Amino acid sequence: MADEQRRGPWTIRASRQVYDNPWIRVTEHDVLRPGGNPGIYGVCGMKGIAVGAVPIDADGSTWLVGQHRFPRDYYSWELPEGGGDPALPPVESARRELREETGLAAAHWHEFLRTDFSNAVTDEIGFGFLAWGLQPGTADPDDGEMLEIRRLPFAEALEMVLDGTIRDAFSQMMLLKVDALGRRGRLPPAVAVLLGYAT
Length: 199
Prior knowledge:
Blueprint: E1 5-7, E2 10-20, E3 24-32, E4 38-46, E5 49-56, E6 61-69, E7 74-78, E8 81-84, H1 90-102, E9 105-116, E10 125-135, E11 148-153, H2 154-162, H3 169-183, H4 189-194
Parallel strand pairs: 5-10
Antiparallel strand pairs: 1-2, 2-3, 3-4, 5-8, 6-7, 6-11, 9-10
Helix pairs in contact: 2-3
């Protein structure tokens, strides 16, 4: 078939959009599986990117945002994070999310994480940033957010990952990677000092 496309070991024979809204698009593909059998493959395409920040205060504290999450119907503690415009540099969207959710502005930004989420069913990519040199301001959440803001020592936030209090995967990845980089001497020097990984 002339219209067939290859995607790695998969052959796409036909594709159709089955759902679309301002945030996501679901496409169903008729495929030949790597073993040669026919099947279908559904992909949730994200219209934005995911951005998140680990804000680090002058005393080594960080900031969490608490909110109810609709899909799993539970209250979630997370780092400041959200969706970004793929046409903009990810750091611009991260700056906006930090300001909207916490009111904070940061003088210094450092990308330290790129990750794929549920890469078997979605094309979403996430960008994680360290943010320091913080200045307070007024939060401005959107009308779908009822947020609780919590400032706490970085070590306490890390413990919330380890004891299962923080279940959000993006927040877990960011906090654990900051700790891993710190233990290996690979954080920006100013952040390493703030978090106690260097003197």
